[in-house]
Write a structure and sequence with these properties.
Helix content is about 10%, strand content about 65%. The protein is built from three helices and 15 strands.
């Protein structure tokens, strides 16, 4: 069971790719593959431990810079295309070749206040990686990402252990608001190596509502108030893992939680988007070894968190262009 709780947190981090491990807005999936600067902050107020004295508090800020590396778009005709009729042959003869590769750099800090005296522990995280999309011959979208990251307390930076997160999957487009994707997420994290299959998608519910899922980490319902404003509510997993000082030793600090959230995204312009979220945390815990090396679990009472963020977009997304073309 201990591995189960940890991999949920790591899987959430893997699927988020260059973004923070928070919520997935599948109706804006294409924005992940657009050059941008994204900044997120989150505060989790103090809450008491369930079985121990003291409280737990978390303050986090993270920035992600995504920039284009390679982009290709071309269209042509295959005169030897096959099909059951003239219309199908004409459709199959169109050949669109599209692909895009982006690089991303991520840096963040997390201030934890733990224990009876509110002991302050500073964790730092940084990563570099790449992500990309391409259109297959059957008009599926192949997407992937690979990141190398480190996450350590200030006192363990000289003992840092690199970690790897990778994702590969395919997106099938069934309509303007109906898509499904599936694939595999892989995490190699300081002795915890996990390949995890996933499936997700969106299903329209009327003109403004949609059902969104990313199994096994999130279920949500979206509401489109206008072209610029969207709401989303649901439940999902969240967590992180970091190196942590334990006396003179370095250990792994693990946090996992179940979240029930409501968020809003508002587009101020074509290049600027704002986000805000409030979440309830009915179940959560931290795990790390004690001084004897035995892994200990510390449940935390129910609480809540608030988050705010901003994205500044620049450049174009090949995935957006693919969606417009295929649809």
């Amino acid at each position: 069971m201990k591995a189960l709780r940890i991999w949920i947190a790591l899987f959430a981090a893997s699927l988020a790719m260059p973004a923070a491990a928070q919520t997935f807005d599948l109706e804006q999936f294409e924005q992940i593959f657009r050059p941008r600067l994204r900044v997120d902050t989150r505060w989790t107020p103090p809450a008491s431990f369930t079985d121990e004295k003291g409280t737990y508090e978390d303050r986090m800020a993270v920035g992600v810079f995504t920039l284009p590396v390679y982009q290709r778009w071309s269209a042509g005709f295959d005169l030897n295309a096959e099909g059951k009729g003239v219309v199908e042959r004409l459709k199959n003869s169109v050949r669109i070749r599209a692909s895009q590769v982006l690089a991303n750099v991520r840096f963040g800090g997390r201030e934890l206040r733990i224990g009876n005296d509110g002991d302050v522990r500073m964790l730092y995280t940084g990563s570099v990686g790449a992500l990309g999309v391409s259109l297959t011959r059957k008009y599926r979208v192949l997407f992937w990402s690979a990141n190398v990251n480190v996450s350590e307390e200030a006192s363990t930076v000289d003992q840092m252990v690199p970690r790897f997160n990778g994702v590969i999957g395919k997106l099938r487009i069934n309509g303007v608001r109906k898509q499904i994707f599936y694939g595999l997420a892989v995490t190699v994290s300081d002795g915890l190596n996990l390949p995890i299959p996933f499936v997700g998608g969106t299903e329209p519910i009327g003109d403004r509502w949609s059902f969104q899922y990313v199994l096994p980490v999130q279920l949500a319902v979206g509401f489109k108030l206008s072209d610029d404003t969207r709401f989303q509510g649901g439940v999902g997993a969240d967590g992180f893992r970091s190196g942590f000082g334990q006396g003179d030793d370095r250990v792994n600090f693990n946090y996992a939680a179940l979240r029930a959230f409501v968020n809003v995204r508002h587009r101020l312009s074509r290049t600027v988007q704002l986000r805000a979220e409030i979440a309830g945390l009915p179940v959560r815990q931290i795990r790390y070894p004690d001084t004897a090396g035995d892994l200990q679990r510390y449940p935390i009472n129910a609480g809540w968190s608030v988050q705010a963020g901003m994205s500044i977009f620049f450049g174009n997304s090949t995935l957006e262009r693919i969606l417009d073309t295929v649809l």
